[in-house]
Design a protein that fits this description.
Length: 474
C-alpha cells in the first residue's frame, strides 16, 4: 500500500472554502449556557450566605449540612435523623427572683443646724473684770462666763434700799395718824375733811413704797447682771473681748458665742413627690442616718423631726428636719452631710438584679429562662430600687429565673447556654442535652461502619487499576 504524499501545510486544499459561511452558536446553546451561568452564580451566592448567616428556624434549628449530617440517617436530617438541629446558643448569666424586705430610703444633702446659737451680750455697762471660760469649752446653762465691775450697782442698790425704808417709815406714821383721826371723828371732835385728807396721804405713801421696792428690785437685778451667765448649754466659741474693756448692751459681738450641739438638727430638702409619704408617716418613728461626704461612715443616727408647710417653687422641694443626739460631738454647725431617711419597709418584695430589667419600645421587660433552655420575653413593672437590685411589682413570680448577662443578643424563643452546662457534642445541640435513641443508634453503628471500610478496599483498588490501564492504552 503506497504511502500517501503529505499535503503541504499552506496548500489550497487546507484553506477553508470561502463560499461556506462560519458556523454560528445556536440560540438554544446560548440559553443553556446563560442558565448554567446563572445557576452557578446563584449557588455560589447561596453558599456564601449560608456560611456567613446560618439559617435558623423558629425553634432555633439549622440545616443538617451545617452540622455535618448526611442525608442518609445521621443526626442531622433525613429519614433516620432526629429532626432539625439547634443553632449556636448564647451563653448568658442567670439570677433567681427572690423574696426580700426592702427599705424605702430617701437620700438628700443636708446642713447641720444647731437648735440654739446665742450671742451672750452684757445687760449692763461696765468694766470687764474677769473671763471665766476657755475658748471651745463646753458650758452648762447657768455657768458664769464673765464678771463686770459691780461696785456702782451695789451703790445704786443701797440708795434704793434707803429710799424704800424712808418711805415705809413715813407710811407707818401716816397710818397711825389716820387711826387717831378716825377715833376723834367717832367722838365728833374732828372734822371729817381732815380724816379724808389723812387717808389720802396714807394711800400716797403706800404707792411711794411700792415704787421704792421696784427701784430696789431693779438695782438688785442690775447687780446680778454684772455676772454674765450662759443662757443655754453648748460650746463656747473664740473670745471676742478682753479683760479691762468697757462693755455695754450695744456691743455687737458681746462677751461670747454659745452654740448648742446636743441635740442638733439637720435640715435637708426632699422632692415634692415624696412629701406625701413623709406627711403620712409623720407620727411614726422614721430613722435618719447622717453620713460623711464620702458616704462611707455613719456619723450619727437620729429621727425625723418635722416637715415644712410649703414647697419651694424654685427647686420643687420641701424642707425637712431630722434631729440627732450628737453625743460624740461629730456634727458641727453648718456642716454638709448626706442624709438617709428610712420612710418605711416593703415586706415580701420580688427582687431581681438591676441588670435583668430592660427597657423597650413597649415598656419594661425581662427575659425569663424556661426549662428547655429557651427564653421568653415577659413585660413587667418595677418599684423601689436599691443599690444592685430592683423590685418587680407585677409580671414575675418568686423563683423564676431571669437573664442578667447576654440579653442584648436574645429575642423571643432564643436558645441559651448556662455557664455550668456541659459542652455540646459533635453535631449535637448546644446546652449538653442527653443523647436520644436516634443518636444512640447512630453511635452504635459507628464500629460497623468502620469495619466495613476494609471490605471495600479491594474494589476501590481494582477500579483505580482499570483507570490507569485505560490511560496507558490511550
Amino acid at each position: 500500500m503506497e504511502p500517501q504524499s503529505p499535503v503541504p501545510p499552506h496548500s489550497p486544499e487546507n484553506d477553508p472554502d470561502p463560499a461556506v459561511p462560519p458556523r454560528r452558536v445556536s440560540r438554544r446553546a446560548t440559553f443553556i449556557g446563560s442558565l448554567i451561568a446563572v445557576l452557578v452564580v446563584g449557588a455560589v451566592g447561596w453558599l456564601a450566605w449560608v456560611l456567613t448567616h446560618p439559617a435558623q428556624t423558629g425553634d432555633g434549628a439549622r440545616p443538617a449540612a451545617a452540622a455535618g449530617g448526611g442525608p442518609g440517617g445521621g443526626p442531622g436530617g433525613g429519614p433516620g435523623g432526629g429532626g432539625s438541629l439547634r443553632g449556636p446558643a448564647t451563653t448568658v448569666g442567670v439570677a433567681v427572683a427572690e423574696r426580700a424586705d426592702i427599705p424605702v430610703v430617701i437620700e438628700a444633702l443636708g446642713t447641720v443646724v444647731p437648735q440654739a446659737t446665742v450671742h451672750v451680750r452684757p445687760q449692763v455697762s461696765g468694766v470687764l473684770q474677769q473671763l471665766m471660760f476657755k475658748e471651745g469649752q463646753m458650758v452648762r446653762k447657768g455657768d458664769v462666763l464673765a464678771q463686770i465691775d459691780p461696785r456702782q450697782f451695789e451703790m445704786t442698790l443701797q440708795q434704793a434700799v434707803g429710799q424704800r425704808m424712808k418711805d415705809e417709815a413715813q407710811l407707818e406714821a401716816a397710818r397711825v395718824t389716820l387711826a387717831r383721826f378716825r377715833t376723834l371723828l367717832q367722838q365728833d371732835s374732828i372734822a371729817r375733811q381732815e380724816v379724808d385728807t389723812q387717808a389720802a396721804l396714807v394711800k400716797q405713801l403706800e404707792g411711794t413704797v411700792v415704787s421704792d421696792k421696784a427701784n430696789e428690785g431693779t438695782a438688785r437685778l442690775n447687780l446680778g447682771y454684772t455676772r454674765v451667765v450662759a443662757p443655754v448649754a453648748g460650746r463656747v466659741g473664740l473670745r471676742t473681748v478682753d479683760v479691762g474693756n468697757v462693755v455695754s448692751t450695744s456691743d455687737t459681738n458681746g462677751v461670747a458665742l454659745i452654740t448648742q450641739l446636743s441635740p442638733i438638727d439637720v435640715v435637708f430638702a426632699v422632692p415634692q413627690d415624696q412629701a406625701p409619704d413623709l406627711q403620712r408617716n409623720a407620727g411614726a418613728f422614721m430613722e435618719a442616718n447622717a453620713l460623711d461626704r464620702t458616704r462611707t461612715s455613719v456619723l450619727d443616727t437620729g429621727v425625723f423631726a418635722s416637715l415644712d408647710n410649703q414647697v419651694d417653687t424654685q427647686t420643687g422641694t420641701v424642707r425637712a428636719k431630722a434631729r440627732f443626739n450628737n453625743a460624740q460631738g461629730v456634727l458641727f454647725p453648718n456642716q454638709f452631710v448626706n442624709v438617709q431617711l428610712k420612710v418605711r419597709t416593703i415586706r415580701d418584695a420580688v427582687m431581681v438584679p438591676v441588670a435583668a430589667l430592660r427597657q423597650g419600645s413597649t415598656g419594661e421587660y425581662v427575659f425569663v429562662l424556661k426549662e428547655d433552655r429557651t427564653v421568653t420575653l415577659r413585660p413587667v413593672r418595677h418599684g423601689q430600687t436599691t443599690v444592685d437590685k430592683v423590685q418587680i411589682t407585677s409580671g414575675l413570680q418568686i423563683g423564676e429565673r431571669v437573664i442578667t448577662e447576654g440579653a442584648d443578643r436574645l429575642r423571643e424563643g432564643s436558645r441559651v447556654v448556662l455557664p455550668g452546662d456541659a459542652p455540646a457534642g459533635p453535631g449535637g445541640p448546644a446546652g449538653g442535652r442527653r443523647r436520644g435513641p436516634v443518636d444512640a443508634a447512630a453511635a452504635g453503628a459507628g464500629p460497623a461502619a468502620s469495619g466495613a471500610a476494609p471490605a471495600a478496599g479491594p474494589r476501590a483498588n481494582g477500579a483505580s487499576g482499570q483507570r490507569r490501564r485505560r490511560a496507558e492504552a490511550q
